[in-house]
Please model this.
Amino acid sequence: MKDKHYEDDDIEYVSKSELKREADRLQKLGKELTELNPAKWPELPITETLMAALQESQRLKQNEAKRRHLQYIGKLMRNEDTDAIQHQLDLLDPSSEAYGRVIRQQEMWRTRLIEDKNGLSDFIEEFPAVDRQQLRNLVRNAGKEMASQPPKPGTNYKKLFQFIKEVMPD
Model:
């Protein structure tokens, strides 16, 4: 004989307050997206529907219309991968830990490329699609800048960092 209590064990009950908190969180995330530079939107893992809603938000001027549209964006956010979107936003925010981690990693590669003889081959092995000739030139020129007394990072040092930034995935 089956007991009815066992069938209900798989159902997870969520309080109304928890649902409201989640809706507010999604709406705040949507608000962050609307405040982001529109040129950054294509980098985000969002659907076409949300992209269209974000573009529409740029057109709205009245406060009440903006408020209602943010609610709509919050509703659309339910169907999005919010963790992936939040991660991308963190990578764009200079005050976030994820952004700092990526920048430190890029700076470590730059230092390693200039100071370590095996750095160039290790970088090429890690990122095989890199333009090797351009990388070698940048490393050589940045190394010359850093070899001067006193070492002063110049244009090539900065160009090498920008090159690494473009090659490395977020």
